[in-house]
Design a protein that fits this description.
The complex is a heterodimer of chains A (about 110) and B (about 120).
Chain A: E1 4-5, E2 10-14, E3 19-21, E4 24-25, E5 31-38, E6 44-50, E7 56-58, E8 64-68, E9 73-78, E10 87-95, E11 102-103, E12 107-112
Parallel strand pairs in A: 2-12
Antiparallel strand pairs in A: 1-4, 3-9, 5-6, 5-10, 7-8, 8-9, 10-11, 10-12
Chain B: E1 4-7, E2 10-13, E3 19-25, E4 31-37, E5 43-50, E6 53-57, E7 64-70, E8 73-78, E9 87-94, E10 96-97, E11 100-101, E12 105-106, E13 110-114
The chains are: A mainly beta (about 110), B mainly beta (about 120).
C-alpha cells in the first residue's frame, strides 16, 4: 500500500533558523507531489507542488522543495523561518492518473520569536 | 469569493443522531473529496467523486454516505453518530488536466463533536 512518511512530528526553531522537513513516499510509479500548510484554525493551503521538470520547486513565502526520485523524497526547506511560519505542514502524494491523494501525518512547526 | 465552502463550521451533537455536512465549490472542478482529520492531525481520504460519480470509497463505515447532486456539490451524511466520529472533516476539489489531477483546494473544515 502507498504511504507517505513525515519523520519530524514536531519541530521547534528560533526565528531566522533554517528549516528542512522530511517527506518520503512508497510508490514506485510516477507521482505528483505537494506540500500543504495549515495555519492555526485555518484550512489547508498549497505551498508548492511538483509535477515534472526541474526537481527543485519554489513555492510561496520563500519555501522550496527538492524531489529526489532515487530516494523517494520531497523535502521542504526554507533558509530563514519567521514566527508567522508557525503551522502544521503536510506532504501529499498523488499517483499519476489516480484521483487520490495520500497525506503524511504532518509536522508541527513552532517558531519562537 | 470562497472557492470551497462547507457548512456548518462547527457541529455538536449526541451519539446516535444523524447529521449532514454540505460542501460546495465554485471553481468548476470535476472532482471532489471528503477527508477526515483526527485528533492527531492525520488526514485520511474518505470519498472521491468525479462528475457526480463515486470513484474512491475508502474503508469507511456505511453509516457515512456521500451525495453529489451535481459536480459542484458533495454532501456527507452520517447516520447513528458515534464518539469516534468526532474529528474535523474537510471537503476538497481538484481539476483533471489532460488526465492529471491538479492541486486540491480545501474547504475550511467542519469540526464535528459527538457527545
Amino acid at each position: 500500500a502507498q504511504s507517505v512518511s513525515q519523520h519530524n512530528h514536531h519541530v521547534i526553531l528560533s526565528e531566522a533558523a533554517s528549516l528542512e522537513l522530511g517527506c518520503n513516499y512508497s510508490y514506485g510509479g510516477t507521482v505528483n507531489l505537494f506540500w500543504y500548510v495549515q495555519y492555526p484554525g485555518q484550512h489547508l493551503q498549497l505551498l508548492l507542488k511538483y509535477f515534472s521538470g526541474d526537481p527543485l520547486v519554489k513555492g510561496i513565502k520563500g519555501f522550496e522543495a527538492e524531489f529526489i526520485k532515487s530516494k523517494f523524497s520531497f523535502n521542504l526547506r526554507k533558509p530563514s523561518v519567521q514566527w508567522s511560519d508557525t503551522a502544521e505542514y503536510f506532504c501529499a502524494v498523488n499517483p499519476r492518473g489516480f484521483n487520490k491523494f495520500y497525506f503524511g501525518s504532518g509536522t508541527k512547526l513552532n517558531v519562537k520569536p | 469569493d470562497t472557492a470551497v465552502s462547507q457548512t456548518p463550521k462547527y457541529l455538536v451533537t449526541q451519539m446516535g443522531n444523524d447529521k449532514s455536512i454540505k460542501c460546495e465549490q465554485n471553481l468548476g472542478h470535476d472532482t471532489m473529496y471528503w477527508y477526515k482529520q483526527d485528533s492527531k492531525k492525520f488526514l485520511k481520504i474518505m470519498f472521491s467523486y468525479n462528475n457526480k460519480e463515486l470513484i474512491i470509497n475508502e474503508t469507511v463505515p456505511n453509516r457515512f454516505s456521500p451525495k453529489s447532486p451535481d459536480k459542484a456539490h458533495l454532501n456527507l451524511h452520517i447516520n447513528s453518530l458515534e464518539l469516534g466520529d468526532s474529528a474535523v472533516y474537510f471537503c476538497a476539489s481538484s481539476q483533471d488536466i489532460s488526465g492529471r489531477t491538479d492541486t486540491q483546494y480545501f474547504g475550511p473544515g467542519t469540526r464535528l463533536t459527538v457527545l
